[in-house]
Design a protein that fits this description.
With about 120 residues, the chain is mainly beta. The protein is about 0% helix and about 55% strand. The radius of gyration is 13 Å and the shape is globular. The chain starts with a strand and ends with a strand.
Length: about 120
């Protein structure tokens, strides 16, 4: 599956952004979808994930209550709504897909930069 992320940009602290990730090439509902991020000098970290139907989500503690992950299977798209952004949310954000048969995310998008100014 190919993943194309978009929606990043520069925003002031307290602002909002919505990231999108469009999938192509395979049956979208066959994958759990996730968002990860990597800040300069830091390791990539998990942000949020959603199951194939959208009925179950999971979040990193650092974004709970501020970020919302969702998916539209008719559009082969997963979203990450980010509210109350903080400077520490600055990172490159990646979407990823994990097939039901896999223990890890095995497809990755190219990343989109999110910069939050103080």
């Amino acid at each position: 599956v190919q993943l194309q992320a978009s929606g990043g940009g520069l925003v002031q602290a307290g602002g909002s952004l919505r990231l999108s990730c469009v999938a192509s090439g395979r049956t979208f509902t066959g994958y759990r979808m996730g968002w990860f991020r990597q800040a300069p000098g830091k390791e990539r970290e998990f942000v949020a994930a959603v199951n194939w139907s959208g009925s179950s989500t999971d979040y990193a503690d650092s974004v709970k209550g501020r970020f919302t992950i969702s998916r539209d299977n008719a559009k082969n798209t997963v979203y990450l709504q980010m509210n109350s952004l903080k400077p520490e949310d600055t990172a490159v954000y990646y979407c990823a897909a994990k097939s039901h048969a896999s223990n890890q995310y095995n497809y990755w998008g190219q990343g989109t930069q999110v910069t939050v100014s103080s």
